[in-house]
Design brief:
heterodimer; A: alpha+beta; Aldehyde Oxidoreductase, domain 3; Aldehyde Oxidoreductase, domain 4; 3 domains; seven-stranded mixed sheet; five-stranded mixed sheet; 18 helices; 29 strands; B: alpha+beta; Uridine Diphospho-n-acetylenolpyruvylglucosamine Reductase, domain 2; Uridine Diphospho-n-acetylenolpyruvylglucosamine Reductase, domain 3; Enolase-like, domain 1; five-stranded antiparallel sheet; four-stranded antiparallel sheet; 12 helices; globular
Amino acid sequence: MVDFVGKDILRVDAFDKALGSILYGPDQNIEGALWLLAKRSPYPHARILSIDTSQAETIDGVVRIFTAADIPGENSFGIIPVTKDQTLLAKDKVRYIGDAVALVAAYDLKSAKEAVDKIKVNYEELPAIYDPEESLKKGRILIHEKGNLLCSSRIIKGDIEKGFSNADIIIEREYRTSRLEHLSLEPEGGIGYFEDGRIVIIASTQNPHYDRDDVARLLGLSPDKVRVIQCGTGGGFGGKLDISVQGFIGLAVYHLKRAVRMVYSREESFLTTAKRHPLIMRYKTGAKKDGKLTAVKVDIIGDTGAYASYGLAVIMRATVHATGPYEVENVYVDGKMAYTNLPWCGAMRGFGVPQIAFAHESQMDILAHELNIDPIDIRLINAFKKGSVTATGQRLDHSVGIKESLYKIKEIRDKYSWSKKKGERLGTYIGVGVGSMWYGIGNTGVPNPSTAQVELLPDGSAILYTGAAEIGQGSDTILLQIASQRLGIAIDRIKLVRGDTLYTTNAGATSASRQTYISGNAVMDSIDHLEDILKAEASEQMDLPSSELIVKDGKIFSIKDSSKSIDIFELVKICNKNKVRVIGEGRFDPPTIKLDPETGQGVPYATYAFASQVSRVEVDTFTGFIKVLNSASAHDVGKAINPKMVKGQITSGVAMGIGMALMEEFVPNKTKSLKDYYIPTSMDMPEIIPIIVEDKEPTGPFGAKGVGEPALIPTAPAIINGIYDAVGVRITHLPANLERVIGELLKKEGA
Amino acid sequence: MRDFEYIAPKTVKETLDVLDEYQEDCKIIAGGQSLLNILKQGLMAPEYIIDIKNLEELNYIKFDEKDGLKIGATTTHRSVEFSDTIKEHYNVLSEMERHLATVQIRNWGTIGGNLCIADPTGDVAPPLLAMDATVIIANKDGEREVTVLDFGVDYYETVVGPNELLTEIRVPVIPSNTGIAYLKYRIVEGDAPIVGAAVAFTLNEKGACKKARIGMGGVAPIPIRAEKAEKMFEGEKITDTLIEEAAKVASEETTPIPDIVASAEYKKRVIGVYVKRAAKLALTRAEKAAN
């Protein structure tokens, strides 16, 4: 039989993407569709006294202007069911510059713009809060009625004070990170129309079923009255998990029953969509002289901006991962997420782990230097192994490839003799840095199932139904590879029906690196079910009990007598003749145990990905410019369903990580668009060596876990530690931009 | 973007007539790589846009040993980058163009447009300053020649009047024993420089500096020359120490505008570094030319 899993199968969307035939959100259009444009708040915090749309309504070309009063359902949304605190159109107050207060539907964009300018909103400005720690002080003005603390999360293991008293060395540092913009290839966009009694929305999204449910909730409809179809999505990185245009499109179609179109400009996307949460992380790490960690105490304050979005998930994930992939007996982690009047923060590749990894890996690096231990060795001394117990009390029994990843990068570092030295140009120095990470696959300690169906057709082909959004990461190809392998049918004989809430069932969000593991397993489960159906039918046809039948190579055989068999597609024909479709229904929910609210003990994830990276960087001490020269990343993905695509993810993670480490920073009110926000280009890339480690996960499809977010996580730590190795300055505030690096260099020179 | 009327004259003469008629109410567009952004952001709202992109009359690169180089204003960056004439006689311009923005922008953007938009971080001006280049500015009654040094007036402002058109860039013949280098400092490849430094040294027969020119971008409201630093070299043997000292002086001659990327202090610091590096490279090239 031909193998589909573990092979570099060409992405199923490769040709369509290369030829430009896929329509993305902003490309979606229907002749005569009205344009939608939102009127947004110019104030960070203000009460709305009145909204006057009368003048705007007189403009030719304006069809209708909506305000909060036009929202028939609950005017609140948000991806986490317990924290839906964001208004589609602000009712009483606005909480950040960019909050939508009204929506214009017009025949053309020009009229819509004119109308937006003519809508008069009378505000009473309120004091605004821009600092999360300020926000939590007593007596501060409330951003939300329930208070300025969104949520908190705590992990307690062992006896933290005992841990520190047993330590030979204690390192205390504060780390900070910045707001980041996702910067998908295309901004948010889509269309909507009314068909068969339903509101249909076609948009760029990572999460069609959530979109459907929250739009229905906004409109006071049952979910089956809304149909969401995911169109081509050129990257999400977490930024397309929350609803953006979908809510506005839904509202307009609800009232107008006609086609509408909404596309965010890049500037609007910068202004009004989620950002990465900036975290303040205060670490106290204790270790013995031999490098063994004895205690880790962490205090985290996050800034979620004006709304909750994924704030709860980010702070939980940051606290759970705060030790790094290391055994620590005594742990105390306290995380708080505060509201401010800044742009709201949500999911972004890694959900708080890229931030926390920067901190725990800087701590490990400081320890290594202080104790004079090789930075890879100190990680090996502490790294999880099979049987290790995490800070939440979870025993890791399988697929713990962290040590293997460290051995792999050590091999590369030593093979090429990467070490600290002077650069070629005067004033430049080269250093080598290491970063490791762990990342729990799926959502934290909550059910997050996926479902899928596989149908066999009499012509020998099959259909795979999945709600899993393909956002460029490759789930279409991976899920088809899994189905192909299990069915023994070539990939091009399986039709994919994906991301349409009318025809597919909920697969959960394309986030948390979960689709290969969770939706992959749902596909596996649907084929198990399919085989049961076939066996039941074969049992009748062959007059044998089901328990005596097996499925192999497209046939059903008797265990006892292999000459007795029946082709599965013969069975399909028989079933179809009897008007029965042969569909296997699959579901998988990773086994987790909810974390104890007081101690954080529990099983947050069924499995973890692990990775280590070594990066070689050159620091120009005259300018503070940092060039990443080489990078090798080893990722334990369980099993690479498609090694080439895994390597692609690893490479992309390094690229994105260089941005996070060195240049990306969204400064509220200053960063308006790409001219104020830097991301590295292909020409700024170092040599990247992606290494796949496969420590199989027994509960994963063919042993697979995930790699989407892990790819990014070790990069910034490796670069920051490389800078320290090169020039002896430690950057504790990301990004390590030119001014920060030169500032630290000058401080060191002065000292 | 506000609506405007689009006019595409067929000849330079016709262009100058149209400019004379509409004056402040119009803006000239060539490659549109900067103007379109400005229009989209609503920073300008002209009633007329005069498109000169297709004026073949202004699309040329000419050279002779007496008058030097003449580049028509609508010549694209890409044409300058690949011109054999320029590679042979003014290679620093080709080098500069290779790192100016992206291929897509270089295919559209014009060298004249780059100067006229007068972004102080533009890549084109510093090497032209280092080579004592001039520009020809025409109106319907005639034309005038202005040095690139005198071309800028203020941030995004030049001496080109509302009825005028920049038609040509002229670069004198490069004297023998001359080395020129332009280095830009940017965060990512393809971006505008934070600062840029161009240095030209002409050596005398004894190997000492006969003439020095230092053009700098991104360190003042307009592209400037470091005239005090230039004087330090003239008549002197160029050493690392002298370069170091002159670079410090050059840095003091700047008045950078802070922005989201860098403070004024930071720009002052790196321009010194880049003048130093460009000077070292220019010296190496001058010495090579002399041998």
